[in-house]
Amino acid sequence: MDTFVRDIPSQARWRLRSWLPMAIVVCTLLVWEWSVRSGWLSPLFFPAPSVVVLTIGRLVGSGELVVHARATLVRVVLGLVLGGVPGLLLGLAMGWWRPLREALDPLVAAAHPLPKIAVLPLIMIIFGIGESSKVVAVAVGTFFPMLINSMAGVRQISPIHFEVAKNYGASPFKVLTRVIVPGSLPLVLVGARLALNIALLFTIAIELVSAREGLGEMIWLAWQTLRTEELYASLAVIGALGVGFNLILQFSARRLVPWHAERED
């Protein structure tokens, strides 16, 4: 079997990998649709995919879905910028400068395992119950993945690269731009992917409990009123956002670090 897979041309393997997930999704949706129409599944708890699609169209046409999706995206982006950028900078600094890493690493080890959602009441006490507390909570969640991956990205760079830069008389700025940033970029992008997914997850979780707009609020309202088709529509949009974010980051990784692209099996 392995020999057969290896004998498939690389372009054909790439097409197979591209179409296989889509084929699985389509088959699952078709089975789901058939199960609902034949009575195997209750449409109250498992509305047919066609009903969910029509619901998405109706919500888009009324503008309701656009308003809620925009609110969620704004919180995700602001939280990612306010938490991810400081995490990136501090992670690079900790990976590069050992005294700073030794001083701050115990604090990071103590703060990172804390459930960030559990800190939300404290954040709301400090920043109020408005939009600021929601963005800060998302920022706290995105801070640590960026910090840890950025620090790990710098630390995995071979010391030989730093020695060569030092022997050539490179300034600290050139060491940063020519050694640290390119060398740590693959793990930084991994951290960005984790941070972005966590930002979306935290945003939805926060909107479930303390928001008047957002996809999480749509889910909560749909659950309260037993409009399961709108609940599934909201979940579908959230899943589409997650897939879109990951595709953007994968495209960016192929552009920024082509030498680190996934090798063909």
User: Outline, from the CA principal axes?
Assistant: globular
| Structure class | mainly alpha
Beta-strand content: under 5%
Strand count: 0
Q: Number of helical runs?
A: 11
**Per CATH, what is the topology?**
MetI-like fold
Biggest sheet, open or closed, and with what strands and sense? none
Q: Termini distance?
A: 13 Å
Number of individual domains: 1
The CATH class is Mainly Alpha
The helicity comes to over 70%
- The CATH architecture is Orthogonal Bundle
- Mean residue pLDDT: 85
Q: Provide the gyration radius in Å.
A: 23 Å
What is the CATH superfamily classification? MetI-like
Output the helix-strand order. Answer: HHHHHHHHHHH
Unreliable stretches? 1-7
What descriptors fit this protein?
MetI-like fold; 11 helices; 0% strand; single chain; 81% helix; disordered N terminus; 265 residues; mainly alpha; globular
In words, what does this structure look like?
By secondary structure, this protein is mainly α. The chain has a single domain (52-264), classed as MetI-like fold, CATH 1.10.3720. Helices cover 81% and strands 0% of the residues. The protein is built from eleven helices and no strands. It has helices at 2-7, 10-37, 49-62, 64-96, 98-111, 120-127, 131-155, 159-167, 172-210, 215-224, 228-256. Helix 9 (172-210) runs parallel beside helix 10 (215-224).
Brief summary:
This protein is 81% helix and 0% strand. With 265 residues, the protein is mainly alpha-helical.
SSE arrangement:
Elements: H1 2-7, H2 10-37, H3 49-62, H4 64-96, H5 98-111, H6 120-127, H7 131-155, H8 159-167, H9 172-210, H10 215-224, H11 228-256
